Here is the input.
Amino acid sequence: MESLAERYLDAVTAQLSRLRDEELPAIAAAAEVLADAITGGRRIFAFGCGHSSLAVYDLVYRAGGLALVNPIVVPGTGATDPPPATLSTAVERLPGLATAVLDNSPIQAGDVLIVVSLTGRNAVPVEMGRVARERGLTVVAVTSRECSAAAPSRDPSGLKLADIAHHVLDCKVGVGDAALEADGLPHRFSPTSGVLGATLLQLLVASTVEALLARGVTPPMFMSANVDGGQEWNTRVLSENADRIFYL
Here is the structure.
């Protein structure tokens, strides 16, 4: 009999296999958009509420990662914001908040915005993508089509993130996120969206690097500061791209 840990690994492995089998063309298309932005002097931004913010921050100032990914920070919506943690659930449903944040951000037409939202239904991520698109940004959504289809939008427009994004990357997570069930528990447990969301974004990074190298462009990437020469390399990358980096 499989242990619960083994069953979780089986569930994650199956979802990862679906990413490989079903999403690589969509990832490659979105990567060309990021490569266009990097070679064209544009900027890249990323946003997520709650635990989706963790996948976003895995892209930012990251050893082996692209240097040009800027997080959009909305107070009260991040998974690591000060307590109470329950505040993020309420804040991510507030219409108008995303517009105010974008009004006070450095985004410009022609930039790229990555929005991570498992269900793509709450007002803040939907509005973030919708208003960004209206302002001339290219929007890349990381979401679950299955989860999105299972519930109505909480945005006044009635739209969901997948409805307004130029590129939709499906993380393949099932409704409710949790992957396991067991006798003695009335509900499922052990979510997979963290693993799948972070993996999908790193696939996007890898595909962007591939697209840049195919153009003869050296990707602006960080080395680990804990290897010899890493700190010096990173200082140079930050200096050369200072006009497109807003997280320092």
In short: Residues 53 and 172 are 18 Å apart (CA to CA). The first strand starts at residue 44 and ends at 48. The chain has one domain: 4-242. The radius of gyration is 18 Å.
